[in-house]
Design goal:
The chain is mainly beta. Helix content is 11%, strand content 34%.
């Protein structure tokens, strides 16, 4: 719940509250529309698309604005350094979730193997730094060997900014999030992480100095500590699409 993430006023004490319109009616259509748009754009179980196959309008038309209503002004005397993840939906095609990051919190540099990822800031400001592998291929990272990567993005985005869309080999597949202010980020992954499916999350760190937007990345071993907790989503539910040959769960 957002109350446990940013400690908003009691009248906005949870996702159930902020997932409604001012008149109290549920935002089912907005959330369902977001799911349908993501499914039609890059989440139908086919091979992950590349930039040439996903138009800018696909990302721009994802109806994330106003999805959880108006955001409060957060004024807390007691800081909470934990990142909160709210899992909204998942099937074999995609997962939808929201990260709530308190100011200065960081999600370290990590990858998204074979995945398309759409991220959009819903509230606050977020510094995004991302890389792609220089040769376009995921290295095996064995024996602590470093691999060449090039900088794709190093900027602050905020509510109202265009969504960032990441592809398997382009768009900044390895990225790091740092909260400039308290912020919330909506994340859509297609397909979701799956260690069994060869889509495990791997953390990296830069070694040496960055030169002309080029850097060498090495796999973090062990993975960096991450102060994150999960919170149950209590808002409106997504109704999954049923297609021919798809079995009801």
């Amino acid at each position: 719940m957002l109350a446990n993430c940013f400690r908003p006023p009691a009248r906005l004490s949870g996702l159930r509250a902020v997932a409604t319109q001012p008149n109290g009616s549920a935002q089912t259509s907005k959330l369902q529309q977001l799911y349908q748009q993501a499914l039609s754009s890059f989440g139908k179980g086919q091979q992950p698309k590349g930039p040439a196959e996903v138009s800018a309008s696909d990302a721009e038309s994802a109806p994330t604005r106003g999805l959880f209503g108006a955001w409060p002004s957060f004024q807390s005397t007691k800081r909470d350094s934990a990142i909160t993840y709210i899992h909204i939906y998942e099937d074999t095609n995609m997962s939808i979730g929201m990260f709530c990051l308190p100011r200065n919190a960081t999600i370290p540099l990590h990858n998204h193997p074979g995945m398309v990822v759409l991220s959009r800031v819903l509230y606050g400001q977020l510094h995004v730094k991302s890389y792609d592998w220089a040769d376009g291929q995921q290295p095996n990272g064995q024996n602590g060997a470093s691999s060449a990567a090039h900088l794709v993005m190093d900027e602050v985005v905020e509510a109202g900014s265009k969504p960032a869309i990441v592809f398997p080999t382009a768009g900044g597949n390895i990225h790091q999030f740092t909260a400039v202010t308290d912020c919330a980020v909506l994340d859509i992954l297609a397909p979701p992480y799956s260690p069994q499916g060869g889509r495990d999350c791997t953390y990296y760190q830069a070694v040496g100095e960055e030169q002309d937007s080029n850097v060498r990345l090495v796999r973090s071993n062990p993975a960096p500590p991450l102060n994150m907790r999960n919170k149950r989503y209590e808002g409106v539910q997504i109704q999954p699409a049923i297609t021919a040959g798809q079995r009801l769960m």
